[in-house]
Amino acid sequence: MYIEKRKRLLLSAIALCFCCLLGSKLVYAESVIGNYRSESLGDVLYFSTDGKEKTEVEKEAEKAVMESEARHDAETNISDTLTPLGVFKITGYCPCYSCSEGFGRRTASGRLAIEGRTVAVDPRVIPLGTRLLIDGKEYVAEDIGGAVKQKHIDIYFDNHKVAHQLLRYTEVYRIG
Predict the structure, then answer these.
(1) What is the pLDDT along the chain (176 residues), one digit of tens a residue?
(2) Mode of pairing for the β-strands spanning 131-134 and 82-93
(3) Neighbours of 172 (CB within 10 A)
């Protein structure tokens, strides 16, 4: 049944493309707004329309471009406020029972753990709430872990397999 739906969808898409080609006309973009990185699409180049009302997709793209530029500006300002903390053992954890000891996504700071932001630290070495730069990415110390002692940081991942593939030693910096 699934294959039949895919075939019908594919045939519909081909028919739509054929119709568009027959009745197409050249369209010129007025200006380039920018580009943004999409998880599902990769790098996306966003073109503005000829001054008409923007669609929701165009509004989202413009918002993503602005956020990307703000992040880039913030990253350029980070470099003058970095404090080296030394070389740390970096591992990963996830919300499964064995990794999170039954706490799931709840963290010691009260926030929910988010992949790409949350790390678990030893609060005697790095206080909770500290912003850290690890391998060029910014994280926030929001959690503590039973096995996280001294110069050890656990990075949160949504996926157990990905989390357990991570083991390395790297330089860590405090931001601010």
Answers:
(1) 455 656 665 556 565 555 555 554 443 334 444 555 555 555 555 444 445 565 666 666 667 666 766 665 565 555 558 999 999 999 999 988 777 777 788 888 888 999 999 999 999 999 999 999 999 999 999 998 888 999 999 999 998 888 888 999 999 999 98
(2) unpaired
(3) 22
| Structure token pair of residue 107 | 């963290």
Specify the residue for token string 């850290």. Answer: 132
Closest CA to 122 of 98, 89, 78: 89
In our burial notation (b when 16+ CB lie closer than 10 A, e otherwise), range 60-80 reads ebbebbeeeeeeeeeeeebee
CB 138 within 8 A of CB 132: yes
**Contact status, residue 119 vs residue 140, Cβ threshold 8 Å:** yes
Q: Model pTM greater than 0.90?
A: no
Task: Say which residue the tokens 């954890």 belong to.
Answer: 93
Neighbouring residues of 175: CB distance < 8 A, sequence distance ≥ 6: 78, 81, 82, 131, 132, 133, 138
Half-sphere exposure of 76 (CA within 13 A, CB side): 5
DSSP state of 112: B
Number of other CB atoms surrounding residue 52 within 10 Å: 9
